[in-house]
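Quick check before the chapter quiz. The format below is the same one you will see on the exam, so make sure you can read both the input and the output lines.
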Amino acid sequence: MPARQLSAIDRLICHIDQAMHTLLPGAARAERASPAHSVDDSALDERERQHVAGLMRINHTGEVCAQALYQGQALTAKMPDVQGAMAQAAREEEDHLAWCEQRLRELGSHTSVLNPLFYAGSFAIGAVAGAISDRISLGFVAATEEQVCKHLDQHLQELPAQEQKSRAVLQQMLIDEKQHGTLALEAGGLDFPRWVKRAMTGVSRVMTRSTYYV
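Here is the expected output.
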């Protein structure tokens, strides 16, 4: 028998479930082992520990936003192959979500209390982009991944030299994010003009400056 096609209500319920899965602490599950699994802990003083935790909290919230963006796009994307691509990207990003949360726990810290707010905003952006066109939707993926890669590059430079566990996580995330952005453009995503990317950078600064602390 042919597989039953999900209705719009079915898909909405799935997205609500995914939102809870993303936002509830400990709910995210990684399919791949954390790159930090076999790396020994380093000696950090309290100031260094708090700084590393702030950086990892930013990256965790960035993954929350990515999950929301992909889910919003998958809800409204018109082409089935684009819907599938968004869902697959979200599953891959869940590894990053789980890895960052695990590292935060190891550092004795917490995820950002602002995550629900950023999730809602990113989901709305993704849904609107998907409703406009699949090309715009994929373009947002590429532009978002470009922003994420900039943050990861910066954070890799800011990590204390001895902090190899967090470094291992961020390095693998950087590899994955670059691949996602490239695939989005190759699938027909619009390469956004510089002024749009600059605006996105401004918005991302609000996220990074707030979630570093809370």
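If your answer matched, good. The longest helix spans residues 46-76.
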